[in-house]
Amino acid sequence: MTSRELTTLVLSLIAGSTSIAGTAMFALADRQGPARCPEGLVAEGARCCGVGQEHAAGRCAGRPTSCSAAQDATSEGCVAPATRVAYSGGKALLGSPDWQGHEARGSGAATVAPFELDAFEVTRARWETCRAANICPAPPLAGELGEPVRGVTPAQAEAFCRFAGGRVPTGAEWVLAAMGREARRFAWGSTGLVCRRAAYGLLKGPCAENATGPELAGSRPDGATPEGALDLSGNVAEWTREAGGYLARGGSYRAKNAAELKNWTAEATDAREDIGFRCAYPRGNGR
Q: If you average pLDDT over each of 20-34, 132-146, 253-267, which comes out highest?
C-alpha cells in the first residue's frame, strides 16, 4: 500500500467515525426529547425538577439544591414567590391581531385601567394560607406546593382572590398582560414557540409524554413577558371574568400546537384539571 493510499484510508476511517458519532449524538438528543428545563432544573420524565430532588410517579420530592431563577428553593421543593407585576393600563385587543383564525370570544378593543397582576399562577402554597384561614376548601387535586392550584371553579378562584385582596382578572386585563400594547402572539413575543418557553405538549408531545399534571409555577422563565409575568402561555389555562361568565385563557400543559397557546385563544368550560388562575389587584394595593 502506497503512502497516498494509506492516507486516504485513514481519512476515510476518521470521516466514518465522525459520522457515527454524529448519528449517535442525534439519536441521544432525540431520545432525551427537546430541551425544556432552564438552568437550575433538570428534566425528569415529563417534569422539570430541582437539582437534588428525587422523581417518582410524576412528582419531584425532597429539598432541591437549586431551582429556576424565578423560584425559591424551599424544604418543600421549588416554589414561586407571591409577587406582582404592575400595568399602567391601555387598550386590550380582544381578538386576533392578524387574519389568522382564532377561538377568541368577541372582538374589538377594550380600555383597561391601571392594575396589578400576579406574576405567577396561584400555587398550592398560597392556597394553603387561605385554607388555614378557613376560607378556601382543600385543593380538589393533589400536588406539590409549587404547582398551580387546579380543578377549582371560578367561584373558588374568586374567593381566594378576595382573601388575597384582589379578584379574578377580567379578560381584557389578562389579554393586555399577555399581549402587551404590541399585540404579541405569545406571552414572550410573536415567534419562538419552543419547549423552553412554555409548558405545553407534555401529555403526548411535542415537548414530553405522559405528564400527570402541570409543571411547577415559574418553570419556564424564558417564556416571561417583557413586563415579568410567567406562564401566561401554557402550564394551566387561567380563569378570566367576561361579560357572559368566565373563560379559561392561555392554553395548558395538554395543548399540542400554537393555536391553543396564542394570547387571544379562550374557551368556555367548567372546572377542569388543567385550569388554574391568578389574581388581579387595584394598582398600588401591594401586600
A: 132-146
* Contact predicate 130/136, CB 8 Å: yes
User: How far, in Å, CA of 229 to CA of 90, rounded?
Assistant: 17
CA distance 282 to 285: 6
Domains of the chain: 85-282 (3.90.1580.10)
- Identify the sign of the CA torsion 214, 127, 281, 269: positive
pLDDT tens digits along 198-233? 999 999 999 999 999 999 999 999 999 999 999 999
Closest to 143 in 3D by CA, of 67, 243, 235: 235
**Pairwise CA distance, residues 172 & 163, whole Å:** 22
pTM score: 0.85
Single out the residue of 257, 216, 268, 169 nearest to residue 47, CA to CA: 216
Tell me: cis bond preceding 282? Omega within 30 of 0 counts. no
